Each structure stands twice: as C-alpha cells, then as structure tokens.
Amino acid sequence: MRIAGEIPSVSGLTRGEFEERFANRDEPVVLRGAVKGWPAVTRWNVEYLSSLMGDTVVRYKQSATHQHPDFHQATLGAMFARGQSRFSELLRAMTTGPREERSRRIFTGDEQFVLQRRDGVTTLAPELERLYADIALPELFDPERLYTVWAWFSGPGVRTWLHYDNNGCHNLNGQILGNKRCLLFAPSELARVYPYPPGGANPAHNCAAVDVDAPDLALHPRFADAEAWSAELGPGDLLFIPAWWLHTFSHTGDLNSNVNFWWKPERVRDNDVSRWQEHVDASMAARKA
To answer: Above 90 in pLDDT, residue 211?
Structure first.
C-alpha cells in the first residue's frame, strides 16, 4: 500500500461550494474547524459526560486487542463480542488503567443510533438525546435526506477495521474529542483490499480481509498496489467520506469521540463497491429463498 496524498483541507465552505467541489464529485475533504462551535467540543469530558449520561446502560463493542473487529480471532463470537455497562463505567474503562486495556472497548452507533430518519419519520433515541443537544446538524446537505446520526467513544490506540458503509450514504464525521488518523480508499481499490465474499465464513462483507496494520502480502498480494488518502483529525474538524469509500481510523487521543451524519445522495452511485454490495445483497436473498 502507498499513501497517494493527504486529503484536502479547507475552511469556510458554503453548502453550494461543498456540493460542487466535493459531494457531487465524490471527493473526500477535511473541513477544518467546521464544528468547533458545537457545545460538545468545549463541554465534553469524563466528568461532564458522566454527569449527563452516567447511569444510562449502553452496549458496546469488545475486542481482545485494539482492533475492532479483530478478524484474527478464532470464532465469530470473539470477533463480534459485545459488552454492557453504565456509560460512566464505560468511560472509566476507556480512560484509566493500562493502554492495552483501554483500547479494547468502543461505543458506536451499531449499538444505539442517536437519531434516524426513515420515510419522513424522525426518531431520536431517548437514551442519547442529551448528547444530541450538544451538537448541531451541519448545514452542508438537505436535512430531509438525513438518514442516521451516530456517536462514537473510544480510548487510545483503537483501530477500526477497514470497511465501507453499506447504506450507500455520504458521511460527515465530526470530531469532538481526541485525535484520529484516517485512511480512505476509493471504491476502485476494492479488489486490492479483498472484501469478505458472500457464502464465506465471515459475514462482514463490507469489511476487508486484509489487515492494514500488518498486511500478509503472500495471502493478499494485490494490497501492495493499493492507494490510500490520509488525514489527521482534531477537535472541531469535519471529515467528508463519500458514499462507498472504504475507511479505517486509528484513535490516538486519550479519549476520542465523534458524531457521524449519514445522508442519502440524490444521485445513486455506480462503482466497484456499490456493484459489490448489489452482488452481496443478491447472494443473501438467493440463500434465503
């Protein structure tokens, strides 16, 4: 793998400029300081979040290592393990103790969305609505096309496995706490990262089989020619991930948090990843028939 370059960084874009230069062209961008005015950026810390959400019981992802999921584990149960605790206890586990222990838990929207909109109906999760009060919907897309809002929390050292979002949505990732190093791969790179095939033992068909931390080029030789775009995110930054782009994050802050906004593009995309997802969906439907 090689780094093709840094994702462009800009500031002060209007919605029209963002759509013309990036969203409509499916090109990623970092909008520096775009969400620095969110109350969450100045308010969120362990003490505030514990007082706000401390007794709320949440589910979270759990790994034997810093990788989430860790596809080196022997069983699907170990790869996709879950835990449950009060939110304050989860924060304490992420912020105290040995670093290797702090990287073994991550809270994502897979466990509980913050907000979702389906068929014109908006649902705000009562467990997390107090978090939503500290953020704002970015004025960069049609709010009627909003699909889902997720919140993420993690300790230092977490690596999210390389994957794409299989909902066909554009994604704005608003960094609130900590720092992240991200790698983005265009849809044309799909074959070089070896997605898990339908009918195989691993059902995560939107995930790459290759481990970007330690690629086995004997097993995945095409990955040597893969190209990625990189960026560093800090508090207040907003990363645009175009629909169907693959991405992986290294969470480098002491406590990391971001909020993601997915929305449906007006134009359906046709690329290697969208066609792969159509193949996955057809294969799954055929097996159920």
So the answer is: yes
